[in-house]
Design a protein that fits this description.
The protein is mainly alpha-helical. The protein has a single domain, classed as Ribonuclease H-like superfamily/Ribonuclease H (Nucleotidyltransferase, domain 5), CATH 3.30.420. 48% of the residues lie in helices and 9% in strands. The strands form three sheets. A two-stranded antiparallel ribbon has the order 1-4. The termini are far apart.
Length: 164
């Protein structure tokens, strides 16, 4: 089965200082602003990030409604040293997220090569592929970020792959 056969969300962080554990959201869970803030950010992701980057990191996210919520932005301004707020982030920002433009594609290749018949098998398969990701690959993806950001500005927030 493909990723798309299961409705499941996944939260992760990558940086030159390393990556976090995978944080899965079970199928059927509605990710509203409250759940995103209380569970995914405060319970899972931020405690996972802070030990490896206590003094400085830039927090970016996409334009999902739970991410754009005023309470979420306020929480991230308070809890992170540097936060790119929703009004400064292009609405179609896939081209600017290292996980999206580099890492998921590699992981998908590995996951799709295996037969998956349940959510638990999919989680295990994703975890296995995540654990295979080398820090050099993450570093390469992170190093592309500023170039991609400059291309996004030149493209006035539009598609930028042709500019790289």
């Amino acid at each position: 089965m493909r990723f798309s056969h299961f409705v499941m969300a996944l939260l992760v962080r990558v940086s030159a200082l390393g990556s976090t554990n995978l944080h899965f959201v079970d199928p059927g869970v509605k990710i509203n602003g409250q759940y995103y803030r209380d569970t995914l950010l405060m319970r899972d992701l931020l405690p996972d990030i802070k030990p490896s980057s206590p003094d400085y990191f830039t927090f970016q996210q996409d334009g999902a409604p739970a991410h754009r919520a005023r309470k979420t932005a306020n929480l991230l301004r308070r809890e992170t040293p540097d936060f790119i707020p929703p009004d400064l982030w292009p609405p179609n920002s896939r081209d600017l997220n290292p996980v999206d433009y580099k890492i998921w594609g590699i992981m998908q290749d590995g996951v799709y090569a295996r037969k998956v018949t349940s959510v638990d098998e999919l989680k295990q398969c994703i975890s296995d592929e995540w654990n295979k990701i080398d820090q050099q690959l993450i570093d390469s993806a992170v190093k592309q970020w500023r170039k991609r950001l400059a291309a996004c500005v030149s493209a006035r927030g539009g598609h930028l792959e042709h500019m790289l």
